[in-house]
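Input/output pair, single chain:
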Amino acid sequence: MLAGTGSDVGKSVIAAALCRIFKQDGYLPAPFKAQNMALNSYATPEGFEIGRAQAVQAEAAGIPCHTDMNPLLLKPQSDHTSQVVLNGKPIGNKSAYDFYREQLKVNSDKFPTEQRSAEANSSLFTFHSYLKAEVCAAFDRLASRYHPIVMEGAGSISEINLRDTDLVNMPMARYANADVILVGDIDRGGVFASVYGSILLQTPEDRKRIKGIIINKFRGDMRLFEEGRRMLEDICSVPVLGVVPYFKDIYIEEEDSVSLEKKQRELIEGKVNVAVVLLRHISNFTDFDTLERDPRVNLFYTNNVSDISQADIIILPGTKSTLDDLLELRRNGCAQAIVRAHRDGKTVIGICGGYQMLGQAVSDPDGIEGTIASLPGLGLLPIHTTITSEKTTRQVTFQFEGQACQGYEIHQGVSNTDQPILQTTHCIGTYIHGFLDNQPVIDYLLKDKAVAAAPVQSYAEFKQLQYDKLADHVRKHVDIPRLYHILQGND
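Output:
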């Protein structure tokens, strides 16, 4: 298990690297994260939903993604509630209190023997206990098919107030009998305190599971940290397996919106300026990674009406709360700016929730998203959308400009058209995530605007190269033979 001193320390990327390294070394690895909280998700080949990070790690491992790799996904809908996706399907919206305290009747046979107790005799379980049984069962199924399992924790492992309700960190490591490698982020500062404190705050049993430390995101001359490395080993009594330098030339799809803070935020002359409208509940922003890398393009995120009016292409992205974000677009003036830009001949693209917003109206008669029953859309596409409890999750193949393309759908809501892509003058809408990963689509959008040569490498080829570069980077800076030694029970 790769555990962390905090969020965004690089656990997901290191996990992807190890998946690739183990694959290169002849093993059949698979990723696993018991519980993920993210708005970036992906559709499995079977048509179920998991966190995007585990789909990326599965791709690095060279295997199809599966719900057993991320059995529990929480998709925040507000500051207090999240949609709960269990084994790839939504089972309702829960507040944090309900998630941990709600009681429900279930068949005790679903629970592993060690989890049956007096609580099981009455068949009355907390919702949290039910989820624990489900994620443990998913791990067991995965471990029967792959080896090794590259597990990932979530956030910090030292949140001692959550110890009794934790599903994803040390309790999961205990269940899986996993060796734990602690990842710390030196770039944010305080790495000695965060690593030492994370270890010291564990129970004696859990402390013994932590077999190594990886310091991530190092900048500067590595020789200057040699003494620090020895000091860390002395105070923690745990070996430092590696110090991984910060990199900017390897591109791995990001897990969550923390990374949006690092994205480009302004117009650039001499390129095709593509403005992605920055929504409060933006989801699946990995839809724009391929376009962002195109040398002809400057892609940036904004909710500034002046920037929107000056952009060549405007994209309304996916969102977890279509109506709430649509209301905010009207309040902050972005809706009007998009309509004016379209009237001036600018290209407007809507994906998933953004597609719904571009229509005539969005309705939520059953209150699936919240208290807003209906709002008029931006009126650029001839569709009406009704939010429904049923979620569509599937991988799709579609034709664009006479060429076969691929993507996936994850959405709640039904629009009154069966067309996968709806086009009018200067406007395109689609439910298909990954729409802009297809080169025929990008070339079509840029054909009258190109200022540089189009890339010759496909996105699929590009991603495989990045996984290899990432594996090389981590091999160079992490003691992989020592890691194998630990995994073989010799440390």
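Confidence is low (pLDDT under 50) at residues 110-124. The two ends are 15 Å apart (CA to CA).
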